[in-house]
User: What shape does this take?
Amino acid sequence: MLAFTVFDTKKLMAYLLKGDVFDHFTFRQGEIYSFASFTINGKKEESFLTEDDTEPFCLWADIKPFVFETVKGKRLPKSMKLVFSLPKEKIERYPNAKAVFLNLLFREGTLLCTTSITEETFSLEQKATKQWDEDIISFFKKHEIPIQIET
Assistant: This one.
């Protein structure tokens, strides 16, 4: 697991809410505390699934407009928690991984991110976790989003 702080919150939020940088992630869940509380479940409704659907969760690209409508305005939300994961077909490079997560927590003007992995079977080997952490660091560097890793 990796924990890090994003320094340029404004840039990350622009990428998140207006750009397409995060669109390939699946959206698991979110909580937004603004003028009211909002909870969003990213799991697809089974009655809407088709034979071609291999992913049980919505892509961020599909959820993003609803989140944007919730947070836009002159006042920042009090807090916001968003949980992302990679689609099933993209986790093959992480041995024994059932799911890989990126969690974003915005609170009191600070954006804290954490990573985690759910494994298929218990293992003491941390190869997948280390790979995912390295990939996330590379992802943020590629998009020129400065971070500070927490120790």
